[in-house]
Amino acid sequence: MPTENASEKRTNFFQDVYEVVKLIPPGRVTSYGAIAAYLGAKGSARMVGWALIASHAQQGIPAYRVVNRNGLLTGKQHFESYDAMQAHLEREGVRVQDDKVVDFERLFWDPAKELL
User: Fold this and answer.
1) At 101, which helix (H) or strand (E)?
2) β-pairing, 66-67 with 30-31?
3) Residue ranges of the alpha helices (H) in 1-116?
4) At CA 8, angle to CA 85 and CA 116, rounded to 5?
5) pLDDT tens by residue, the chain, 116 residues
6) Cα(42)–Cα(32) distance, integer angstroms
7) 12, 72, 87, 101 - which has most CB atoms within 10 Å?
8) Residue 4: left (phi > 0), alpha (psi -120 to 50), or beta?
9) Is the full-model pTM beyond 0.85?
10) Cα distance between residue 18 and residue 14, in whole Å
11) What is the DSSP string of 60-73?
C-alpha cells in the first residue's frame, strides 16, 4: 500500500481546509484553531493559516471569514489590500473595530458544532 508523502498530506490538508471554509455562512466567522480541531489536527492553527494564504490563488474560498481565536483580523496583510479583509466582512454585515470582529462570540461559527 503506497504511503502519502509530506507534500501530498499538505495538499490534502489544504484542500480539506478549503472545503470547510467554503461552508462558513456569510456574516459569520470562525477561527484557524476551530478549523484545525474540526479536521482532527488540533494545534495546527498555523497550518490552517498557511493553507488560507495559498488559497488566494483560487476562486470561491472566503478566507476573510477566518480570524484568530480572539476575533482579530490577523491575516489581513495577505489580502489584495491592507483593509480588504475588513471590507469583505463589512459587506456581509460583520462589524470590525480596531481590527477585531465586534460581537465575535455571537458571530462565531464552530464547524465541530455546525457540521455534525
Assistant:
1) strand 100-101
2) parallel
3) 6-21, 32-38, 45-54, 84-91, 104-107, 111-114
4) 60
5) 455 555 555 569 999 999 999 999 999 999 999 999 999 999 999 999 999 999 988 899 999 999 999 999 999 999 999 999 999 999 999 999 999 999 999 999 999 999 98
6) 10
7) 101
8) beta
9) yes
10) 6
11) S--GGGEE-TTSB-
- Which is nearest to 67 in space by CA: 57, 87, 52, 82? 52
Set of cell numbers at residue 105:
462570540
What one-letter code names the amino acid at 51?
A
Closest CA to 21 of 8, 38, 3, 5: 38
Start-to-end C-alpha separation, the chain: 31
> Which residue reads 480572539 in cell numbers?
70
- Please give the grid coordinates belonging to residue 57: 490563488
